[in-house]
Amino acid sequence: MKTKGIILSILISVLTSVTVVFLFIKNYQPVIIQPQSENYHAKLTNLLNSTSGENVNFVLAANNSVQSVVHVKTQYNQQMASGNVYDFFFGPGVYSNPVPVQASGSGVIISDDGYIVTNNHVINQADNIEVVLNDKRAYIAKLIGSDPTTDIALLKIEEKNLPFIQYGNSDDLQVGEWVLAVGNPFNLTSTVTAGIVSAKARNINILSKQFAIESFIQTDAAVNPGNSGGALVDVKGQLVGINTAIASNTGSFTGYSFAIPVNIIKKIISDLIEFGTVQRAYLGVSIVDIDNKLASDIGVTKIEGVYVAGLNEDGAATEAGLEKGDIIMKVNDKNVNNVSELQEQVSMYRPGDKINITVKRNEKMKPFDITLRNKHGNTKIEKTANVSALGAKFEEISIEEKQKLRIKNGIKITELGSGKLRAAGIKEGFIITSINRKVVYSLQEIEETLENTKGGILIEGIYPNGMTAYYAFGT
Fewer CB within 10 Å, N side or C side of the chain? Predict the structure, then answer.
């Protein structure tokens, strides 16, 4: 009898436990768990005090930056195919019934009159861009311009007296310094995370554009989807970078994030405001990093600088006197030890600017004054054309692109908004070689041809990968 009672008690206990577990699972809701903070903050404070002569104040940095970081919301009207062959060539086109798709990221206010910097990939091909401030005021933003080669875009909202961020100096940033990432991950607005600078001048090969410049600041500050375009600030709350990418196998933060240095960004913003397009300067050289094998092959004992593997015949470096086999050591007294560092320094200048390059040749240092050129081999200011009805921006292609694709002419589409070209299925980077069988050589020709054509338009051209294509639509 006693044994039966014990067994009954055990069964009751088991059934009760199962019921409790079942009820917990049935009513379970995911929650954000707040970690125990007392010991953590005490340890962090001790760490900061022990590694610096002054107390690093994350509160000050956050207060100086949070108000200037905005939520960027975008809408894309994806086109659904319909229609017939006649419509394709002479009617409104085969694309109709747009389906709205939404996405979001972050941005940073850089002036009190409404200029906002973000990533190009945040707003690329968006039909509508909305900016929500930290105080929840919302505005429709205008795209001023973008630079896919650095993944930077500039927006503008119509407002005055906005809280804007102060610029820092990314050149002065050192490995080991504390930084904060400010943005809107997972739509959690005004999120601030802390980390240190893990490395500088990182090239992670995420920008596939020709002439892409990658010289990222690597940090371990947590950055997640939605942080793109947000601020990376120093302990004073000054902008030192724009958060762009993470190293992850899952799509979420797993240890490292990457930001575009603010010194690159400042020049791009200035160009976009003044010219509508980036004025990119080139040395006219082929360069590679020096590793152990290359050092052994070229007979140098110290691995430093950037190796000149070749020069363009009409390039700035050739005219100045640089030679194949030179090792570039400095740009205007700034040491460069890899390709990314050299590209970063040159990217801060425009065609026509003069810089001083120090090279090592036969174990001796030689200085050269170089006048930088554009991709066409001259010092002229680049122009961009905007045919509003088509919703696109154009630019002339470089000599290198013509040689690579074996074409004599062409106008490249650099940006696509909502318009007939995008509706026809054309992608950014497409090079128009003819319109209605008429060859086009200049921006002026393409504008005149499109404006004077009535009825159907047939556009022929080629993509940077060599694939030829043609598109047709009605005017």
Answer: N
